[in-house]
Amino acid sequence: MSRLLNFEKLNNIRDLGGEKTLDGRVISPGKLIRCGHLADISEEDIRKLEELTDTIVDFRSEGEHTRQPDRVIPGTSSHHLPIVDTQAAGVTREAQDVDLFTRMIGHPQQAKEYMSGLYKNFVMSDYSVSRYREFVDLVREKHDKAVLWHCTAGKDRAGMGAVILEEILGVSREEIMEEYLKTNLFLEKDIRLLSGWIKKRAGIDSPEADLSLQYLFGAEKEYIESFYEAIEEKFGGFAEFIREGLKLSDEDVRKIRDRYLTFPDEEKTEEEEKD
To answer: What is the CATH number of domain 3-264?
Structure first.
């Protein structure tokens, strides 16, 4: 499974290294990193990121990107690839989103169905698919350090970016689901604080409100299932999505796997050499 990295003010930052693939290999550590936004990180976090990554991809909307720009990380190239081209409350974190949160606060099922629809749209929207294609093209390039991608919380847009890479690399569907749901653990404190603020603003405090906000700000298996169902509906399966949506040939996939995967014994030898 992935490893949560230790940063002072950077939330939900995970190294996909160590995830097992169906061919017996694992994702190499220090190559593929997902996280939340970089707007409020500390100087020590900047120093660590300078050592860790040379390529940063921001999946946030234009509004989020402008309102809370990432801190500059020396020695990195930055790429802004907004996954959604419109406001999408629950995925985006813009001022207007609060109104939708307060309207849904007492309607858990509506909140869950709304979020499932957003995940479906990551696939049904040609715009979103084209942005993920650009992301994968960046990952395909040679990098001396890790590729790091993020949205705001590192949950939805960044989460599906991770799913796409995990599928390309051959991680099992079971491990992909388990990895996705770990977000609830890593964002537990943030979800609690944000939910408390929304409830206070709306003047509502009830079990239904708590559940609604958990559905809006957390990770649910129904969301990732909606993502997969949309791929089946639009492309006929993930292999076809890789070929038709991401425009990757079988040879492209092989090269990506050879670049980012290693056999466990090789990984252990590399770590021993570093020591």
So the answer is: 3.90.190.10
